[in-house]
Amino acid sequence: MSGSKLTMEFKHQATVTLAEVAEAAGVGESTVSRVLRNHGSFSGKTRERVMAAVERLGYVPNRIAGTLASTGSRLVAFVIPSLSNIVFPDVLRGASAVLEENRYQAVFSVTDYDPGKEEALAAAMLAWRPAAVMLAGFEHTEGTAKMLRASGCRVVELLDLDGDALDIAVGFSNRAAGRESAAFLLRRGYRRIGYVGHDLNRDTRAGKRFSSFCETLDAAGTPVVAHEILAGPSSVDNGRLGLERLLARATLDAVYFSNDDMALGGYFHCLAQGISIPSQLAIFGYNGLDIGRAIPQPLSTIRTPRVATGEIAAQLIVANAPPQAVDLGFELIEGATA
Amino acid sequence: MSGSKLTMEFKHQATVTLAEVAEAAGVGESTVSRVLRNHGSFSGKTRERVMAAVERLGYVPNRIAGTLASTGSRLVAFVIPSLSNIVFPDVLRGASAVLEENRYQAVFSVTDYDPGKEEALAAAMLAWRPAAVMLAGFEHTEGTAKMLRASGCRVVELLDLDGDALDIAVGFSNRAAGRESAAFLLRRGYRRIGYVGHDLNRDTRAGKRFSSFCETLDAAGTPVVAHEILAGPSSVDNGRLGLERLLARATLDAVYFSNDDMALGGYFHCLAQGISIPSQLAIFGYNGLDIGRAIPQPLSTIRTPRVATGEIAAQLIVANAPPQAVDLGFELIEGATA
DNA sequence: ATGAAAGCGCTAACAA
DNA sequence: TTGTTAGCGCTTTCAT
């Protein structure tokens, strides 16, 4: 008995509760709750006494208890493919700014582009009863989709618009991006065009860009001459390696890369090999990273609204907006490499 | 009444509870709890019946309720300065892999290098009663330190070792990094050395590197000739601009940058201006980003164990390790730019 | 404007 | 091995 009591005391060492604040302030618990959430009515005097007690005791409200007692949580769950691909930190950055302002809390986990892992992590997220779950794109397992629909919580699918949304979608069309990239290269007069990309089975958005890129070239009668797909995630090193391999097999006048990381690798390869850009070889990327503007010849690419995607997604959740698809578009940067 | 009931039903539409599972399986609630957490004892038959009911009803455990009822939470809170600086996504990446394996959940918020914001966000985090709070470095407000100490939850300070830890510290010495960078440049014979950095008041770890860098040069009798500090966060563009300004004012044979982003900007400036590296000007960075190895001349820099910092920090929390400081060291990369 | 009391969905003794 | 019973710390009616 006394042992148990000691244990209790130890565990709860610094844990001041709302009940203790109420007692110290000489008011009821519900009054403290009202004052702290600034909701309902109470007198100015009461408010002062409560705040004084809170201060004096160093009370920190327990949001776990609060969430359980009330209807909805203020957690927002992000289930993202990667943290290495700067795209996702950018989305988180935009979202977290908005969420913090509105007293929401961001929670995340990383799937490594694995749909099975996505399902497991989404399930784990749902256990926290979040206000919303945010995922990349539309390609999920049947199980993930079913679970999300059954959960009753809001779902936001990010960075894609080519597919059917479960609830809210915020992003832009990857198909349109691929198409416009191809059209741009054609307009510039390039005809022997190649492609260097990373694992497209996993990064389905990159896959969509590539397939609509190909369709556009096919329609123009100048299909992709050769392509090189590297295993693993996108990286500068892989872009460099991919271009090296591609040029060993084919004579090209332009290369489309799966994103800017890859394209920078290609750019550096040309720099190191003395291949002049764009006269000997043109390079086109995707994402519009800052670093692409800082290299001696600004990278020709498509700039995507990554931070805005996070911001808008968060705003819609905070506002409890109805289901919808928001097209944020993208911007083609002519640059100097194509 | 009927309205209220409808509302209730709507809100709880898909919310199956443990009690319902227990009823469906024909067992007690605690039995379901034991089976689900695989803790305590129960027969194989019981296990099957429970799992069947879970499956049939599509039950998703409520971790909010679970956390409130049990002693400790499995939330780990990250209060980080930035998501733009790749350092922090890298740390999160390392940590989240370990946390996911151990059924912990990562929560984060972003301070923008503002100690006041850090205090507010740390307070908000504490309201979730996390198992641990992870912060960057040792420089916090008095209020933050006091609050953290009083909270009774574990605290991990990351990416620095030069200072007094509140509880656990995982990282490396920024002072040693600055010192070794200076020693390296001296060894190579450089004597007219400059510095280009970003806002050091906010990024105190960069400030520590710079000050020990200066001390080392002072001791050698060849103090820093000139330095250029740019407002705002580090970026490739700022590195480029900073070097341009610095070279307009001083004749130098080497420049130390606050990190690789800045150094890459400097590198590109030289490339564009036809300044040959390292014969006319040497460049030295900090972080050891992948992209630094992919440019035509590999960047001379110090590689920091960012992912490992996250991993080790998470492991210590999962294992409930005692207070300690873990030095993960760093590696000087000679590269080709210095 | 305020307090009493009934949960929120789970875990953890404690009995059986 | 299993069920019963208290809570965990809040929010939220409902009286007062």
Layout of secondary structure:
The structure is a homodimer of 338-residue chains.
Chain A: H1 2-11, H2 18-25, H3 29-37, H4 44-57, H5 63-69, E1 75-80, H6 87-101, E2 105-110, H7 115-126, E3 132-136, H8 142-151, E4 154-158, E5 168-171, H9 174-187, E6 193-198, H10 204-219, E7 226-230, H11 236-249, E8 254-257, H12 260-273, E9 282-284, H13 291-294, E10 301-303, H14 306-318, E11 324-327, E12 331-333
Parallel strand pairs in A: 1-2, 1-3, 3-4, 4-5, 5-11, 6-7, 6-8, 8-9
Antiparallel strand pairs in A: 10-12
Helix pairs in contact in A: 2-3, 2-4, 3-4, 6-14, 7-8, 9-10, 11-12
Chain B binds a DNA duplex (16 and 16 nucleotides) through helix 2, helix 3 and helix 5.
How would you concisely characterize the structure shown here?
Two copies of one chain form a homodimer. The first copy, chain A, has helices at 2-11, 18-25, 29-37, 44-57, 63-69, 87-101, 115-126, 142-151, 174-187, 204-219, 236-249, 260-273, 291-294, 306-318; strands spanning 75-80, 105-110, 132-136, 154-158, 168-171, 193-198, 226-230, 254-257, 282-284, 301-303, 324-327, 331-333.
